[in-house]
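Question (not urgent): is this output format expected?
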Amino acid sequence: QLVDQGCDAIITIGAAPTGLNGAIQYAYDHGVLFVALQGGVTSPYALQISGNYALCGKLQAQALGESMGGKGNVLIVQGIP
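Got this back:
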């Protein structure tokens, strides 16, 4: 439906590996870019992007440490892993 309405790109987060293959193929056939973030789709017609979580965590920790002047206590609370 989005393709038929004239969109230029479709971006999804956490797509099912094979669940959208038909829609991805349809988008590709009509010149619409399909981007899958944080989820591995199996279609060769999708652009897949994932973040570098190790680097992101390092940069966040460095910024926190610098903002605290290099000392203090930090409590990390993690939700459902």
